[in-house]
Amino acid sequence: MSYQHILVPVDGSDISYSAIKHATEIAKAFGSKVTAISVVSEDPFAAADFYYTSAILKDYVTEAVKNAEESLVKAQQIAQQQGLSINTQVVKNAVSAETVVTTAEELKADLIVIGSHGRKGFQKFFLGSFAQDVLGQTELPILIVKQ
Q1: Which of 93, 83, 70, 84 has the alpha carbon at shortest distance from 16?
Q2: Nearest to 32 by CA among 87, 75, 77
Q3: Quick check: is 73 in a domain?
Q4: What is the DSSP string of 134-145?
Q5: Any residues with CB less than 8 A from the CB of 91 and at least 6 apart, and which?
Q6: What backbone phi and psi angles, to 5 degrees, belong to 44?
Q7: I want to staple 104 with a disulfide (CB 3.0 to 4.6 A). Which of 1, 7, 69, 132 is the partner?
């Protein structure tokens, strides 16, 4: 089996950068294309019980996009150190497994490489497992990187 297009969600964490390293190794072996994405919620207050001003939302979105772009620049640098050029994209949508899966389908990716923070116990109960959610919502092969 050979992979043509690998999608890697990046959130600025060390484990997401480790996923970039693994994806570039696979891409070099198969001659694959790699796209790193960073998801930014356009309205993080959608379910909030209070009203907020558009200035607050504008400041949030501006800062979130800036952070996402910085994470993707670092992902590009890591890939370049591995001898590979990758595509990057900020995805403005809900930060969810569904967004990652939909983006993978839209980009016609045939492998998702995702980092897992390895939360256990109460952390996993309260914070959930994003990688596990992605795994449960797609038929695409997924490589979960834990270190």
Answers
A1: 70
A2: 87
A3: yes
A4: HHHT-SS-EEEE
A5: 37, 38, 39, 40, 99, 103
A6: -70, -10
A7: 7
Q: Give the tens place of pLDDT for each residue, 29-73.
A: 999 999 999 999 876 555 455 555 567 767 878 898 999 999 999
Determine, yes or no, domain membership for 55: yes
Q: What is the token pair recorded at 69?
A: 């772009």
Q: How far apart are CA 97 and CA 92, in angstroms?
A: 13
- Tell me: pLDDT of 137 over 50: yes
- Contact status, residue 36 vs residue 75, Cβ threshold 8 Å: yes
Q: How far apart are CA 80 and CA 119, in angstroms?
A: 30
Q: State the CATH number of the domain containing residue 23.
A: 3.40.50.620
Distance of alpha carbon 105 from alpha carbon 110, whole angstroms: 8
